[in-house]
Amino acid sequence: MFENIATGFELFFTLGNILAITAGVCLGVVVGAIPGLTATMAVALALPFTFNLDPVTGILLLVGVYKGGVFGGSITAILIRAPGTPAAACTVLDGYPLAQKGQAGKALNMALYASCIADFLSNLSLIFFASLIAGLALAFGPPEYFWLICFSLTVVISISGSSLTKGLISGLLGLLTSTIGLDLVYGTQRFTYGNFNLMGGVSYIPLLIGLFALPEVIDFYVRKVAPFTVKAADRSRVTLAEFKGSLLSIIRGSFIGVIIGTIPGAGATAAAFLSYGEARRTAKSPETFGKGNVEGVAASEAGNNGVAGATLIPLLALGIPGDVVTAVILGAFMLQGLTPGPLMFQDNITIIYAIFIGIMLSSIVLLGSGKLAIRYFARIADIPRHILLPIVLMFCVFGSYAVQSQMFDVGVMLAFGVLGFIMMKINMAAAPFLMGFILGPLFEDNLRRSFLISEDILIFFRSPICWIFITITVFSLFVGIRRELRATRAKRDAIRASGAS
Amino acid sequence: MSETTTQTNARKGRRREILFAALTLAASVLFGLFVIPGGVATPASVKHLPLSPAFLPYLLTGAIGIFALIHLLEAIFAPHIPADEEAGALDAHPKWKSRVLMLIALLLVYLLLPDQVGMLVTSMVVTIALLAMGGERRPVILIGVGISVPLLVYLFFTQVAQVPMPLGFFEDWM
């Protein structure tokens, strides 16, 4: 093993590899920060550049782009409430309120630290537990997935905002919206009304951009004065006490990200929301979440970056891509004449180790390039809002169009922007809607596939994994609802008391 | 805030919540009775209820209806809790109606014009209009930002990100 590691080191330490990973991370951060341009798109764009590179250099370039892209999404999420990537949607919840308070620097730095730590832990998991975790992921069938999604959906309780019932309605509306399109089993149409553009369902990116970024733009023009001045050139930094206070959430979020990332298809967005929900559930003052709690930023960023290294586990260990990005990376491996999977660990172990070393380095590069990006990107928030918001709207339109090169997607973005604005006005949280929309197809697909397998409801209780997820789902529901009801009761008591006095 | 203002706000807030819950409840009933039967094609060969394409929409609509009913009862019988946003809400712009109409018009321009005049020209027009609407009067900023930023963003998307943008009638010239 040590011989292989030494050869891996030798193979990795070339100027080309170090430049590739640095360039990849920097490119990823920039592209990830632009709403509409996702990490997937950045990796796909970088793919042609790997054709003439060494296998290790090419793969490291793509991995760097991927990791940079995941972090980059948080920058605009914090500064202008426009998540650069879907996974950064959860960072909006506390990141943007912090920016509104003039503490964008603190939010951005915490996002970076949490991202780097989570990325590092995720990489360690990839290196040491790849085969073990990959085996666990293989034990997941449709019923296990179904319960995992049910557990993930319980997070809606934590992100419901001021009203639990409204939050639940918002989540259910998101789930309902996800049913639009062709039916997964029978191929019949659902709510498409013959519209070809809706056959594949409502596009994910335009919905995300519309729901989060556009309401801010609309609100600015409807209000008498700009309600908040976001100041990024503040001197707010993460204090040692804040960092220590968030460390547990970062570590927990990282491992949530690792577990979710290992399971193909579960995704970084779900990991971010789960990590956020857990941080809020265990916090001493959960009521501060959603109003600019730096721990909320740390938890969500740890969740989504924890996924980044872990998605490579099923890819490298089993040859199974966990998401679209890893599918593109799988393509890059194949273009280089390498086939990820168990055989690769026998035939190309030195390449594997060289990639592992490069991936470990990517966390450090991410810290450096992230610091640099924060310094320059943070200036965005110093732009007066009447100049900034028309540019934000332009990015929303360009970003939505870029997804499928269709004006229909711009329409989807505008429609969900109006919906998001209405939700903002009636104090209905938009985050549960997004969570429901993302998890909806997985929820339904696994529910129905389970029934197709056995036609018996007992299939949902077939394995210990099912029972583990049933238990934690029930526990999470119980604790979450009890906490929300207690908080509501306390508020009502306070109102009654103030009315009586 | 005086006691009377607080009570008036609470009354308004309660009314708003009742209206929201009642409308959601009505919408869920209409959705269940008309939209799902009309919008979801269910094959006759479906053996089990959960396998039906209409199963989840009905389940979700029912759940929305139930939560709307709970919210309605809560709004009627329990004291109203003002949301944080409600308490700190700023007044609407004095000309908010005309501004909303202008904004809708500009959003429609973004939706309908790119296929005719191209994405670049459309974004320049809308950006300049929004800058003016936001109160910018300096011609250098209006023209400078309104032309240079859309041009740079357009070039980034088309040349770097390789995303083809609509050119409109410029397509024939190029």
From TrEMBL, chain A:
Keywords: Membrane, Transmembrane, Transmembrane helix. It comes from the Bacteria. InterPro entries: DUF112_TM. It comes from Roseovarius litoreus. The chain crosses the membrane at residues 12-38, 58-80, 111-139, 193-214, 254-276, 312-338, 350-374, 410-439, 459-481. Residues 18-434 form the DUF112 domain. The keyword Chaperone does not apply. This is Putative tricarboxylic transport membrane protein.
Automatic annotation (TrEMBL), chain B:
Keywords: Membrane, Transmembrane, Transmembrane helix. This is Tripartite tricarboxylate transporter TctB family protein. The chain crosses the membrane at residues 18-36, 56-79, 100-133, 139-157. It comes from the Bacteria. InterPro entries: DUF1468. It comes from Roseovarius litoreus. The keyword Transmembrane applies. Residues 22-166 form the DUF1468 domain.
